Model the fold of this input.
Amino acid sequence: MSDSNTIAGWVLGAGIAALGLSIVSGKYFHADKAEHLEKPGYAIAGVESGEGGDEGPALATLLASADAAAGEKQFAKCSSCHTINAGGAAGIGPNLHGMMGKAIASGSFDYSGALKEVGGNWTWEQMDAWIASPRKFANGTKMSFAGIGNAEDRAALLAYLNSQGSNLPLPEAPAEEPAAEEGADEATAEGEEAAAVEAAEDATAAAEEPQMAE
Done:
């Protein structure tokens, strides 16, 4: 009887050992294999979704309907460093009254060398790029503002800046695509009409040819 119990004990022990070895080996051989979800349950910074971003409407299109009052609210982000009233004193940044259309880094304010090197004037496009990302526009600028990513918010701010002593003419909006489509339809119709006329002329010529008797 004792021999049977001993044998049963060895068998049970061997089974437990085999099971434990199987679990340990499974964890070992899968430890370096990362398992990914087919689609993340939430957004992860630095991971591309695979969906392309929409460029959105052109700046001129946005400016055509931009609300200067909404832009004044956006200017609150700038007011800690800038004044915009006529004759206002410079703060951390220059006074911005009448800035649109002026030469970049002009005036008595101590601008950074990076901004001075840009050259040109504060056009709609230049100011839009500057507000979107000062560091990208002028690498090395002293301006620490991160920028405004939303294109509509930038357009509203530009409209407000322009209303404060600048009055720079709005850029011409791009031509609408439906006009080009109508031109293509007209060209297609003309081509079909010409083909029909040619076919009719060929049929008339064939009918006028003398028939040979069989």
User: Anything to note?
Assistant: Residues 114 and 140 are 5 Å apart (CA to CA).
